[in-house]
Design goal:
- The structure holds 2 protein chains of 2 kinds.
- Chain A is mainly α.
- Chain A starts with 11 loop residues before the first helix and ends with a helix.
- In chain A, helix 4 packs across helix 6.
- The longest helix of chain A has 28 residues, at 194-221.
- Chain A has 16 helices and 2 strands.
- A two-stranded parallel sheet of chain A has the order 1-2.
- Helix content of chain B is 23%, strand content 32%.
- Chain B has helices spanning 3-18, 23-30, 112-120, 155-164, 185-193, 204-207, 215-218, 233-245, 287-293, and strands spanning 40-50, 53-60, 72-79, 82-89, 101-106, 126-129, 145-151, 169-176, 198-203, 226-230, 252-255, 268-272, 277-281, 311-321, 327-329, 335-337, 341-349.
- Chain B is α/β, with parallel strands linked by helices.
- In chain B, a hairpin with a 5-residue loop joins strand 14 (311-321) and strand 15.
- In chain B, strands 4-3-6-1-2-5 form a 6-stranded antiparallel beta sheet. In chain B, strands 12, 13, 14, 15, 16 and 17 form a 6-stranded mixed beta sheet that branches. Chain B has a 5-stranded parallel beta sheet with strand order 9-8-7-10-11, sandwiched between helices.
- The chains are: A mainly alpha, B alpha/beta.
- Chain A binds chain B through residues 23, 26-27, 30-31, 33-39, 46, 49-50, 53, 92-93, 96-102, 105-106, 109-111, 120-121, 124-125, 128-129, 206, 209-210, 212-213, 217-218, 221, 273, 307-308, and chain B through 16-21, 25-26, 29, 78, 80-84, 301-302, 304-309, 311, 323-324, 326, 331, 333-335.
- The structure holds FE2/S2 (inorganic) cluster.
- FE2/S2 (inorganic) cluster binds at residues 300-303, 305-310, 337, 339 of chain B.
């Protein structure tokens, strides 16, 4: 809504046709889901568990610096895999079709302080349905940041680069608070709502278990390596938080991604919904390892179009989706991680100041958009 | 402290170490058949029996509690990545020295699991098992005279019993389309040669179907025999009627494997099992709307098939995915997204 509407050149018929073409891509993947996909997720889960066990084993001797380094690196990677490629995607129901009760959105619990159940509500339901709709999708700035020129500036926003950095370091706690809608619910009247209290209790329980595991039990098991193991798990959690925060910022924050007004989604058709997902998401380009480490959220555009398709299929889907972007003359926002992270942070800084204080990003004219 | 209490303490501690997973999630990686694990088995060999039937040798996990001859087990196996469960009679004797069990599977047309087991499954595959169950067994005191009335793969539970117990006087009437279709034909003829069995083998392609009315000629003392019948529904229906007509129903034991086949239609009666409500639904209305319309509390979220907040167990019948047209039939543990599924014939949801 800031720049000119980048989809203005499309007619209603074209948008519906686009929707049908995307449906066809989805159907094709669903019809061909099978053994290979199942083997993929089982393999990732097995590798992750072995890596975590080995790393924790090595950390028992973390008093020796090389052990600390290897163990911490391994645990960080294991935690990233667990949250991104496994947890996030299983909780999206991407693997429910396997009918394996152990790899199922209704039974999975992840290594994160937000209980799976609550996260599924705020993420799968609110964020994925209302992607980038200001006021409805709280993932936009997590309720603590100004993410669009059209949002009113407030002196509080001056601090947003700092909030964002703190949020990145303790991202899992930020998410838990966000899933609880803490800001809204801490008001006196809402605090005592039994439903809120039950959810807050569940978060408390989860935090207790997670903290006990990472900061008490495993350090204790390490005996003389108590302190170094403690530092190692803290580091691994920090690395995981910074990493997932970066990846997620790249999904909807970089320049070129559109946000939408609440009004604009009234009576939205399937084609329009698809179009909003296309314009509201951005990809990260990179190697296969990069895609796995981001939980394939590097294919954020494809993920937002088809949140329930198995993550290992997004790469092949991306080729077809990209072709549709070209066909309909839309801007496929993608770039390498450093560039996208910089772009997102740049926006955080830029919007921390009132509009007139900064040079606005030059708005592309329709012609330029078509040519892009 | 007792050792049991001590063990459960230790386990609790271990759970703290592995949270949010369970210790078993890690142990399953290295030892899926250990004691205390969910019951599984490993396929060790697959021997062809006929052109479309094979015997699968399974090493059951440590939790296996054994079976009684004639009982069946439910087997869960991943076919094209999807876990499917089917029931098969155990065909090995209870006394098998190596502790292995066998099931014998006939590939039925379009049968996903049976075709997979007969033609594609490989030794080494870990499968999921349920403990043996079923009432289709010999009583403790062996009856003096026994009759087995079997057809096709209905031979399997009878074979389990014949291999397990030597019976004094046993007759079997077995039907199969052709000679080469008779599962266990060699074993049966060995038993005959041993005088352990009197066998009437019927090849229905040439001899025609067994007419139960002819039983009097084939086995004159049939009414005195304790009878176990297993085979297609037609045969069992006819047998039940025949035994009832002669007032000897209590001597007939039957086993039916394939419960009524689901016929997927367009719309149908939707039952909400927990609330006990039943409503008529068309083939285009999402079950979520149907339930809410009937005043049933339905979980929901995005209402467009993306959040998986509405998944609900499908207890019976079939539903159609409104986006792809795909039909899902009820099976143990099958959950459906009610916001994008409509009734495909009568069905029951757990709500
Ligand atoms: S309500 Fe979201 S998937 Fe059904």
């Amino acid at each position: 809504m800031t720049a000119i509407d980048p989809t203005a050149h499309l007619t209603d018929e074209q948008i519906e046709e686009l929707g049908r073409e995307l449906d066809a891509i989805r159907d094709e993947v669903i019809a061909s889901r099978g053994e290979k996909d199942a083997a993929y997720i089982r393999k990732v889960i097995s590798v992750q568990r072995r890596l975590e066990l080995t790393s924790r084993g090595i950390l028992l001797f973390s008093i020796f610096p090389p052990a600390w380094l290897i163990g911490t690196a391994g645990l960080s990677v294991a935690k990233i895999l667990e949250n991104m490629e496994i947890g996030h995607n299983v909780l999206h129901g991407q693997w429910d079709w396997m009918r394996d009760p152990k790899i199922h959105s209704t039974t999975w619990e992840w290594d994160h302080v937000s209980p799976a159940e609550q996260w599924k509500h705020s993420h799968n339901q609110l964020h994925h349905t209302y992607t980038n709709v200001i006021g409805k999708d709280n993932d936009l700035g997590y309720g603590i940041m100004r993410v669009d020129e059209d949002q009113k500036w407030h002196p509080m926003h001056l601090g947003q680069p700092l909030w964002n950095f703190i949020n990145a370091c303790f991202f899992e706690y930020g998410i838990a608070a966000y899933d609880l809608e803490l800001g809204k619910n801490l008001h006196k009247r809402r605090r005592n709502n039994p439903e809120f209290r039950a959810r807050a209790k569940a978060v408390g329980r989860k935090i207790r278990k997670q903290v006990l595991k990472d900061y008490v039990i495993h350090p204790l098991l390490s005996g003389p390596s108590f302190l170094t193991t403690l530092a190692a798990t803290f580091t691994a959690n920090l690395v995981r938080n910074l990493w997932s925060h970066s990846v997620i910022m790249c999904g909807h924050f970089p320049e070129g991604v559109a946000v939408f007004e609440r009004r604009s989604i009234k009576g939205e058709t399937r084609g329009q919904w698809y179009l909003r997902q296309m314009m509201g998401s951005a990809n990260i380009s990179g190697s296969k390892a990069m895609h796995i480490m981001t939980g394939n959220l590097s294919h954020q555009i494809e993920h937002h179009l088809f949140p329930d398709l198995p993550s290992n299929r997004y790469a092949e889907v991306a080729v077809k989706v990209k072709a549709l972007f070209e066909k309909y003359e839309l801007d496929y926002v993608s770039g390498p991680l450093p560039k996208q992270v910089f772009s997102a942070w740049h926006k955080v800084f830029r919007l921390s100041l009132p509009n007139k204080k900064v040079k606005q990003t030059p708005k592309k004219t329709e012609k330029e958009l078509v040519a892009a | 402290m007792t050792s049991v209490a001590l063990r459960s303490r230790a386990w609790k501690l271990l759970e703290l170490v592995t949270t949010p997973l369970l210790p078993s999630d890690y142990l399953d990686l290295v030892s899926p058949l250990r004691a205390g694990a969910d019951l599984r088995g490993r396929i060790e060999a697959i021997h062809p029996e006929t052109g479309d039937a094979a015997t699968v040798v399974i090493k059951p996990g440590r939790g296996w509690r054994g079976h009684v001859a004639g009982q069946y087990i439910r087997v869960g196996i991943d076919v094209d990545g999807v876990r499917l469960w089917r029931a098969y009679s155990v065909t090995s004797p209870t006394s098998r020295a190596d502790g292995r069990i066998t099931i014998t599977v006939k590939a039925i047309p379009d049968g996903k699991v049976s075709n997979h087991l007969v033609r594609k499954a490989r030794p080494g595959t870990v499968i999921h098992l349920d403990q043996a169950t079923g009432e289709f067994v010999l009583p403790k005191t062996r009856p003096a005279k026994v009759l087995f009335l079997t057809a096709g793969s209905g031979i399997t539970p009878a074979m389990g019993m014949l291999r397990d117990t030597r019976l004094a006087d046993v007759v079997m009437i077995h039907s199969a389309p052709r000679k080469q279709d008779v599962i266990f034909r060699n074993d049966l003829h060995d038993l005959v040669a041993d005088k352990a069995l009197r066998l009437l083998e019927l090849h229905t392609d040439t001899d025609g179907m067994l007419d139960v009315a002819r039983l009097q000629d084939l086995v004159p003392d049939w009414a005195e025999r304790e009878t176990w019948a297993c085979g297609p529904a037609g045969l069992l229906d006819a047998a039940e009627e025949h035994w009832a007509r002669h007032g000897v129903s209590e001597r007939l034991h039957t086993e039916r494997f394939r419960p009524s086949v689901v016929v997927a239609g367009d719309g149908g009666e939707v039952t909400f099992g927990k609330t006990g409500k039943t409503v008529e639904a068309d083939g285009a209305t999402p079950l979520l709307d149907v339930g809410e319309g009937a005043g049933v509390l339905m979980p929901s979220g995005c209402r467009m098939g993306i959040c998986f907040g509405c998944v609900t167990p499908l207890k019976s019948g079939a539903v159609r995915d409104l986006r792809t047209g795909e039909i899902t039939e009820a099976e143990n543990g099958v959950l459906v997204q009610t916001c994008v599924s409509a009734a495909a014939g009568p069905c029951e949801l757990e709500r």
